[in-house]
């Protein structure tokens, strides 16, 4: 069973409207009083500022440390990225030079380069020479 809200269907009486207006005005006055009390010269006196100056300096120092730490971290990340790209390039150079060296050290490539110097590739196997020493008596 649900009950129907009868207040919305009827117009509010003048008494209820006045009470609501008074409560709203009281809340507005309380808010204004609170804002005035925060920004009053009594609260923001030079004594209060001087008394909280070490805390403000500490907070400023923490802010500076935070900013410098952030810059250091970003610089380190950039350096790591730059070095990583350098390592990749050196790895590519190594792989290309290694492949080129493997190609140049094949038997056919060595034979071609030796032929330009006037050297010929030997077709028969090497001969083993044995030296016989005579014993002296």
Helix content: over 70%
| Sequence of secondary-structure elements | HHHHH
Overall structural class, as computed from helix and strand content, comes to mainly alpha
**Beta-strand residue percentage:** under 5%
Number of discrete helical segments: 5
- Major β-sheet annotation: none
Distance between the termini: 137 Å
Taking pLDDT < 50 over at least 5 consecutive residues as the criterion, the unreliable ranges are 1-5
What assembly state would you assign to the polypeptide chains in this entry?
single chain
Shape estimate: rod-shaped
What gyration radius follows from the Cα positions, in whole Å? 47 Å
Mean pLDDT: 84
Count the E strands. Answer: 0
Q: Descriptors for this entry?
A:
137 residues; mainly alpha; 5 helices; rod-shaped; disordered N terminus
Description:
The structure is a single chain. Mean pLDDT is 84; it is low at 1-5. The chain starts with 5 loop residues before the first helix and ends in a 21-residue tail after the last helix. The longest helix has 52 residues, at 53-104. It has five helices and no strands. It is mainly α and 137 residues long. The chain has helices at residues 6-9, 14-38, 46-51, 53-104, 107-116.
Condensed summary:
Helices cover 71% and strands 0% of the residues.
Strand and helix layout:
Blueprint: H1 6-9, H2 14-38, H3 46-51, H4 53-104, H5 107-116
């Amino acid at each position: 069973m649900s009950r129907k809200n009868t207040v919305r269907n009827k117009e509010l009486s003048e008494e209820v409207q006045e009470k609501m207006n008074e409560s709203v005005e009281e809340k507005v006055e309380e808010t204004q009083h609170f804002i005035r009390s925060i920004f009053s010269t009594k609260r923001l006196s030079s004594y209060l500022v001087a008394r909280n100056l070490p805390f403000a300096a500490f907070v400023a120092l923490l802010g500076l440390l935070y900013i410098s730490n952030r810059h250091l971290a970003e610089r380190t990340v950039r350096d790591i990225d730059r070095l990583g790209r350098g390592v990749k390039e050196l790895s590519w150079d190594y792989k290309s030079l290694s492949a080129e060296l493997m190609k140049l050290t094949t038997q056919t490539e060595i034979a071609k380069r030796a032929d330009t110097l006037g050297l010929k590739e030997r077709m028969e196997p090497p001969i083993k020479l044995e030296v016989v020493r005579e014993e002296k008596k």
